[in-house]
C-alpha cells in the first residue's frame, strides 16, 4: 500500500532557479530515505509557500520522514509546517495515470 505525504510551509525563499541550484544536495539525499518512492517539489513565491508531495511505501516511513523533515525545517528557522498523510487508492489513481510505483 502506498502513502502520500503532503507538506507545506511559509518561507522567504529562495524560489525558482535559486531554489533548484541551492537544494540539489538536499534533493539527492531524500532519495535515500527509508520507503521513499518519489517527490514533487512545490513552491509559490508570491505567497511565500513551499513544500512537496511525496510517495512512500508505508505509513510508518511517511511518518518517520515527516518527523525528521519537520525538525530539519525548524532548524532552518521555518515555522508553520503542515503535514498530512493519506492512504493512496492505487486502483483509481492508476486509472487516472497516477505515478504509483513500487
UniProtKB/TrEMBL annotation:
InterPro entries: Dimeric_a/b-barrel (IPR011008), YdhR (IPR014910). It comes from the Bacteria. Transmembrane segments: none annotated. It holds the Pfam family ydhR. Gene3D superfamilies: 3.30.70.100. This is Monooxygenase. It comes from Lysinibacillus parviboronicapiens.
